[in-house]
Amino acid sequence: MSLKTKRIENYPAWYQCVVSEADMAENAASPGCMVIKPWGYGIWERIQSLMNEEFRETDHENAYFPLLIPFSFFKKEAEHVEGFAKEMAVVTHSKLQEVDGKLEPAGELEEPLIIRPTSETIIADSFAKWVKSYRDLPVLINQWANVVRWEMRPRLFLRTREFLWQEGHTAHASADEAETETKRMLEVYRKTCEEFLAMPVIEGVKPEYDKFPGAVDTYCIEAMMQDGKALQAGTSHYLGQNFAKSAGISFINKENKPEFAYTTSWGVSTRLIGGLIMTHADDEGMNVPPRIAPYQVILVPVIKKKEDEEKVMTYIRALSSELKSHTPFGEKIRIKVDARDKQSVDKFWEWTRKGAPIICEIGPRDIENNALMVKERLKVGQKEIVLKDEFVSSIEKRLADIQKEMFEKAKSRMENNIRNDITTPEEFKAYFANSNEWIEDGTQGKVAFVRGKWSGDEQTEEILKEMKIAIRCIPFNQTGTTGKCLLTGKEATLDVIYARSY
Amino acid sequence: MSLKTKRIENYPAWYQCVVSEADMAENAASPGCMVIKPWGYGIWERIQSLMNEEFRETDHENAYFPLLIPFSFFKKEAEHVEGFAKEMAVVTHSKLQEVDGKLEPAGELEEPLIIRPTSETIIADSFAKWVKSYRDLPVLINQWANVVRWEMRPRLFLRTREFLWQEGHTAHASADEAETETKRMLEVYRKTCEEFLAMPVIEGVKPEYDKFPGAVDTYCIEAMMQDGKALQAGTSHYLGQNFAKSAGISFINKENKPEFAYTTSWGVSTRLIGGLIMTHADDEGMNVPPRIAPYQVILVPVIKKKEDEEKVMTYIRALSSELKSHTPFGEKIRIKVDARDKQSVDKFWEWTRKGAPIICEIGPRDIENNALMVKERLKVGQKEIVLKDEFVSSIEKRLADIQKEMFEKAKSRMENNIRNDITTPEEFKAYFANSNEWIEDGTQGKVAFVRGKWSGDEQTEEILKEMKIAIRCIPFNQTGTTGKCLLTGKEATLDVIYARSY
Fold first, then answer.
1. What pLDDT is recorded for position B95?
2. Could you tell me if B136 and B160 lie in one domain?
3. Residues B261-290: what's their mean pLDDT?
4. Interface test with A, best of B48, B49, B61, B65 (most A CBs within 10 A)
5. Does B228 lie in the same domain as B299?
6. Minimal Cβ distance to A91: which of B42, B63, B90
7. Looking at residue B275, which CATH number applies to its domain?
8. CA A199 – CA B104 distance, rounded (Å)
9. What domain range is B334 assigned to?
10. Are residues A390 and A436 in the same domain?
11. DSSP states of A34-65 as a string?
């Protein structure tokens, strides 16, 4: 019961197939936008819930700022507006009116409003009101919101005109403190990806030319997809005093002198779900790590004769309540009893395509043996008959093992596919002459990441553009050795990650 | 330390004062929009969390649909577009471009997009794809989202151009089932208001002329504010086959014939927080019921000498961890240790204005006595020294008592102020000749609700408009008696609730 399209046949088509067969999202009637269906949205809610805990532990508070930003705000920070001007949805009218029997936009606004592509400018405006003295700092805010960027080539989860995200915005009394915050939140993102999404990442900083518009430094985490392409999974920006100056966030410092605040911003989005799919899904469909699965255990009754129904359902209810005394990962367990009026085999494949971690089937014979049939998504095609008590007492370990295995599998794929033995521009060119394709587990693919030297010259930007590859980041762990820049052949010490990307 | 403006002096100014002094929200730079600050947003998150549980228990799933709705969708349902056309934000361009050195909207869209004022049309479009057979029904969806309605007289929480809400949308195989759903969700709203927000409501149905645009029936819950005005706290609409016909949600029924589905929609918004303020706040500031308070217990260290700090903080941490073994209302207790570098008296007033249910002050002398100073927000001005163990063991009861007392106080205000002894248009007119003003607790105010007869005549709409009052609802519990319509004097049997409203 594999998907219509396999990874090896057509990787991009396979991706669309997973999204649709796992019932996670679909294209909306509004061009370039998506409908996030319950299973996809449930994963997002799990990510929200786990990240909210991380934010709370790092003393951030959630708040909400307006969707619509006055046009004039974008003019305040020159680099910022330049970065976003080409993809902004502009609101110009406030009603519809009938003209010659046809409805038309009316009530033209004096000043157009921009649907937030990101909220630095509007949030800085509030911070400017909130902050007067060093005693008011730091301000540590997070917002869960929708944003709109007019993407021209939309793809579900990866790149849609509207997407959901969290954006953190903070203001500090010193540059040091703000830079520490920027890195601290990058670490929260690393933890989110690796521990919750089981998606390994590389931490680093973006090259100067690829910074967030208006930032001093942009830090990022980069993940490797199953086709060896990179996915930027999260970014954290140190904004220096740029936005503080344009919005007027100033405070009286301890020396009793006025000073502009130092701000940061950082975000991850529903794009993470795209990354999740291309990290864990296979030819059977999606595969969701237990920590973020909306349901971790599915209980499917197998009832052939009507007279067995009562008995089976009673057994399942008891099993469900026994499981509920367990708290995998220190949280309430999430169980779904799927009692819909459908064939159990169809239910099994439905939950397999959705990627629920554990699917259990329970019929009259299992009850006689005080057992159940257990199928783990990670071992699709295998099944085990397990004694009920044994299953219940092992549930926390089972889920923890699945989580761990998923991470390790992805981690070894990434590690196997970072080439650091390419040392000349010629070899480099030959390597990237190949196109990206699906990398089988445990193997080395034709193309993925190259870790190598970069001279930092301006001309390298042009070469990258021609080759259609990118410097994904300058990783934190630098070797400090000297070698040839893989683009120019010049001597260079900086290690960077080169890759094609989403 | 009362608020600058008291209720008796200027009720609307007092409201603004509470919102601002409790640090719940502020006006945004974007005209008519608000910034929801952490304390206000925290209350909203609590409402979300409790409602999500109710939705789960009634088998609804969360999903997310696009912010932007194609213009053409609104033309499909004539009543619907007419109802919303006057307050729609219209997106007409997709970028900004420099023209003569000035940035201007560019990239005009072929078809304008509307920022959702509500999502019936776009969600119905998805339902039409999802539903083929009676086996696909019911579809039970909820969405948490922001919506925009171009309000001309915005007021924080009560009426803002952008607000946050949940909107439920369901499709069913029969009219009966859909009507049952509509009422079931109204009951969820009643429970939310009464049990969580401690805000009593009257359930009923809207008069024909005041229905949601496109609905067959609109059910609602109405609450009484402290000035006797009504606040519509939630609505639940039975939409019949109207939206199903315009969007094409049809299915093959059990008789193997095509049939249009029966749909419902229902919503509550951040407006609830406005209702919460006008139900519970007083001249000292906000007062948040424990079930939805972001923090239920505030622990304030009282440290006069630096050398006491260590001892006091150790005691507080121990107290906090002892409290955490308790689960008021079956949930994790929410405690805030306020260790900011500020005077404890300032902290006390800050939390009082925010309306935290219980504020505890702990200094060296309290520790000697193994005690603490307890101040309940509901009994502002009073304080008690309580033994620590006694406080810890009574915390669940204390919070439950506060919740109950808040509800009962509001309930008796409402019951005392529904006049049902007004029986003629003359008395009725004389009653509403008064203007609304603050009603002191336990008393009967000059103007509030009148429960009386309504003939249902068309002309009554005009009379209501002139008197600037409204029929808030036709309550479920009808007496069935006959009397005079309070507007026309004609014989009538229908009981309705008359009031001024927000």
1. 94
2. yes
3. 98
4. B65
5. no
6. B90
7. 3.30.930.10
8. 42
9. 290-413
10. no
11. EEE-HHHHHHHHHHHHHHHHHHHHTT-EE-B-
Kindly determine whether residue A92 and residue B88, on different chains, have CB atoms separated by under 8 Å: no
Q: What is the Cα–Cα distance from A225 to A231, expressed in whole angstroms?
A: 7
The C-alpha atoms of residue A281 and residue A3 are separated, in whole angstroms, by: 11
| Contact call for residues A499 and A229 (beta carbons, < 8 A) | yes
On whether both A295 and A153 belong to a single domain, the answer is no
Residue A251 contacts B where some CB pair is shorter than 8 Å: no
pLDDT at B251 (0 to 100): 98
Q: Tens digit of pLDDT for each residue in A177-192?
A: 999 999 999 999 999 9
CB B163 within 8 A of CB B271: yes
Residue B263: the pLDDT is 98
Give me the residues of A, 435-494, that contact B with CB < 8 A: none
Q: Which residues of B fall within a CB distance of 8 Å from A90?
A: 91-96, 105
Pairing of strands A102-115, A90-99: antiparallel
Number of domains chain A contains:
3
Q: Give the domain-ending residue among B391, B413, B435.
A: B413
Residue B3 lies in a domain: no
Q: What is the mean predicted confidence (pLDDT) over B75-101?
A: 89
pLDDT of residue B102: 84
ipTM over 0.95? The verdict is: yes
Residues A169, A239 share a domain: yes
What CATH number has the domain bearing residue B402?
Answer: 3.40.50.800
- CATH label of the domain that carries residue A481: 3.30.110.30
pTM score, whole prediction: 0.97
Q: Are B140 and B45 contained in the same domain?
A: yes
Helix (H) or strand (E) holding A332: none
pLDDT exceeds cutoff 80 at A290 = yes
pLDDT bracket for residue A103 (50, 70, 90): confident
pLDDT at position B78 is 79
The pLDDT of residue A35: 98
Rg (CA), chain B: 26
The last residue of one of the domains, among B413, B442, B466, is B413
Cβ-Cβ pairs closer than 8 A, A with B, add up to: 193
